[in-house]
Specification:
The chain has nine helices and seven strands, in the order αβαβαβαββαββαααα. It has a five-stranded mixed beta sheet with strand order 1-2-5-4-3. A two-stranded antiparallel ribbon has the order 6-7. By secondary structure, the chain is an alpha+beta fold. InterPro entries: NT_sf.
Amino acid sequence: MSAPATPPSATDEERFVLDMAARLEAVGVPYMLTGSVASSSYGQRRQTADADILIDPDTPGRVVRFVRALGEAFYADANTARAAVHDRRMFNVIDYASAFKADLIVCKAEAYDRQAFARRVRRPLNAALPEVWMVSAEDSILSKLRWAKETGSTRQHDDVVGVLAVQGAALDDAYLDRWAEELGLRADLDRVRAVAAPLMPDDGPGEC
């Protein structure tokens, strides 16, 4: 199958992401875009050749059907995908032509991960493109702070500052505060809020 029609202004990366989303929807695999693709939609755009997609399949068979339907234009391994669902880990899809890569991450069973997936929203990558399932702005912030703490990546903090600066008062601060405490990210959240504060609008809600 092919991705839904997109305007000529769509980038190759956006077309790849929309294609992956459409293919997952076609076989009934619940998903949400996360990582830098999502934070770019909520905050400051950052170019990336990788798309992080969280999935929550009810059976391994749906993911195997997704992989087998990709065809020869993509690299993906059905056995690896099946094992990833069983073990709740990750597998990859790579577009041979563009080298764009999707990391398909199976949703974990922990309380926060389930809550974040339940809060996913329908949202376009940008105003000119079709809607897809995406992590909420708050969970984009929390997931990037968690990843930064695990890896030491400063890029994650930059992405979070961009989301905070653009979204501003539209964010659910009580939700952020609660889960930052639960996840041991209180100090990390305070630091990025301090950096983002001068960049936020003086009044009015941020973008949604």
